[in-house]
Fold this sequence. Notes:
Layout: H1 4-17, E1 18-31, E2 34-45, E3 51-62, E4 68-80
Antiparallel strand pairs: 1-2, 2-3, 3-4
Amino acid sequence: MAGRNAVRAYLLQAAERQEQVEVTIERHWVVGPTILAAWHAGYVQRSDRARVRLAGFMTMELADDNRIARFREWWHRRETPATR
Length: 84
């Protein structure tokens, strides 16, 4: 994914599929132009009301103009079906 429009399209598509989104950055580290962060997130899928929880880690490297030059992310996903 590269550019503002690609990021915007990604976020808009996610917003169509998810609600009650919560994100928590548990811990972060900054070393020069590199940012590392451990995070947790959760949301409800609009399609079937299942609850999704994620635990992940991300790295970002900033360019000289302080924009993100490189972004990588890893996560584990757990889904709980909606109770009826």
